[in-house]
Amino acid sequence: DAGVTQSPTHLIKTRGQQVTLRCSPKSGHDTVSWYQQALGQGPQFIFQYYEEEERQRGNFPDRFSGHQFPNYSSELNVNALLLGDSALYLCASSWRGHVAFFGQGTRLTVV
Amino acid sequence: SQQGEEDPQALSIQEGENATMNCSYKTSINNLQWYRQNSGRGLVHLILIRSNEREKHSGRLRVTLDTSKKSSSLLITASRAADTASYFCATDSLVSGGGTSYGKLTFGQGTILTVHP
Lengths: 111, 117
Description:
The complex is a heterodimer of chains A (111) and B (117). Chain A has strands spanning 5-7, 10-13, 19-24, 31-37, 44-50, 53-57, 64-68, 74-78, 87-94, 101-102, 106-110. With 111 residues, chain A is mostly beta strands. Chain A is globular and about 40 Å long. With 117 residues, chain B is an all-beta fold. Helix content of chain B is 0%, strand content 55%. In chain B, β7 (61-66) and β8 form a beta hairpin. Chain B is globular. Chains A and B meet through β4, β5, β9 and β10 of A and β5 and β10 of B.
């Protein structure tokens, strides 16, 4: 079992650009959540996908959007990047909202 | 926004000593979980304690929960250098009307634990 896999591991983007991060959940999991972790902080919930729909959302602007595919994999899209979007983006998968398993994250740097 | 505070922010001990980390939270919860993070990478789930439980053990880990004080503690006994990491508490909060939050986690700011060989 490969666990939760995220790609890419590192990414550098310029302000104003758009970025797409990808996540493959652990086998058997149907729910994917995305978190943003700024340096020195705890992760903050962005949103959660279940049955290909956004089930709930944290306090993030509409520039943050996502998608879940029929195979339960997910994408996180961020438009109009700001310097403050620089962070570690973590994907977590679970079965029906039970214990979450996290991927290794994508380190996004906006310059 | 963060759920609450973790205390201490940083802890430095020698191998073999015990490490205690505390977590406070603000809302009513379904459960509280502890995670470990090595070098700013992925989070590893350590233990989950439900709101109707007061204490739970897993190997060298002992977690307590006091819902009246909205606080929890994580004790790591006989620490090892490999325990060096950041530790986070995360709450799965009750939703108004008694519904589930479907596993939406609210994290504290974490405790950085350093265990010296």
